[in-house]
Amino acid sequence: GAGVSQSPRYKVAKRGQDVALRCDPISGHVSLFWYQQALGQGPEFLTYFQNEAQLDKSGLPSDRFFAERPEGSVSTLKIQRTQQEDSAVYLCASSPGTSGISFTDTQYFGPGTRLTVL
Amino acid sequence: KQEVTQIPAALSVPEGENLVLNCSFTDSAIYNLQWFRQDPGKGLTSLLLIQSSQREQTSGRLNASLDKSSGRSTLYIAASQPGDSATYLCAVEGSQGNLIFGKGTKLSVKP
Predict the structure, then answer these.
(1) Which of A27, A72, B3, B49 is the most buried (most CB within 10 A)?
(2) Alpha carbons within 13 A on the beta-carbon side of A6
(3) Which residues of A touch B64 (CB under 8 A)?
(4) A-chain residue closest to B50, CA distance
(5) Is the omega angle on the peptide bond into residue B8 within 30 degrees of 0, that is, cis?
(6) Shortest Cα distance from B111 to chain A (angstroms)?
(7) What is the pLDDT of residues A28-61, one digit of tens each?
(8) What are the chain A neighbours of B104 within 8 Å (beta carbons)?
(9) CA-CA distance, B88 to A4, in Å (whole number)?
(10) Phi, psi of B55 (to 5 degrees)
(11) Which backbone phi and psi does A68 adopt, to 5 degrees?
């Protein structure tokens, strides 16, 4: 596709429900990032994939958060037993990732999924 | 731990003014610095990327500078237009390629 797409765009969940957020990166992009953006804040890093390998998950706030990218393209961020503090916009970004360890590629962001936990 | 600060948090200017947005970071060991624009309900659009070896980048009416030693970057917008109204985010790249963002500056350009 032309850009990064995310679905759903909006999700309302009752506290305790599980949710799954999908990211379709730009075709051929090696690197994929998930960020969480709370209201009035800048995005905060959650996790990073290079192809199917999850190389960094240091930003995941708890073990209720889980991300996967099994075939190195589409990625899913899953949140189990959602809490009100999980309410945020979840942004996905991809980059060509051809610069080795020093990533000087621009990251292309999707429109985000706005999650509201009631 | 790298921290990114943006000043001011909000800015309102009349159309046609030149303006400067500021960004500071605590750890000068960065790979690059990027400026993004975020419109309400939308994702981030990359405006300019400055590699650590560079001092500035220009794109149209935008000019971004980087001073690694002092941990500062500025985004200069010339001849502002109402269409420039948005939140501008500064981000530095971490060791794994993840971006560390400031909280942004919300810009409003009045016609």
Answers:
(1) B49
(2) 28
(3) none
(4) A104
(5) yes
(6) 25
(7) 999 999 999 999 899 999 999 999 999 889 999 9
(8) 42
(9) 20
(10) -105, -30
(11) -145, 160
Residue B75 contacts A where some CB pair is shorter than 8 Å: no
Angstroms from A65 CA to nearest CA on chain B? 18
Determine, for residues A43 and B98 on separate chains, whether the beta-carbon distance falls below 8 Å: no
H/E run at residue A1: none
Any A CB within 8 A of B24 CB: no
List pLDDT tens digits, range B51-102.
888 999 999 999 999 999 999 999 999 999 999 999 999 999 876 678 899 9
Give SS3 for B83.
helix
Which amino acid does the sequence have at A101? I
CB B18 within 8 A of CB B77: yes
- Residue B52: CB atoms within 10 A of its CB come to 16
- Six-digit token pair at B64? 């971004």
Q: How many CB atoms lie within 10 A of CB B65?
A: 18
Answer whether A93 touches B (CB < 8 Å). Answer: yes
B34:A97 CB<8 A = no
Write down how long chain A is: 118
Q: Using CA atoms, how far apart are residues A68 and A55, in angstroms rounded to an integer?
A: 11
Asked if the Cβ–Cβ distance from B44 to A91 is below 8 Å, we say: yes
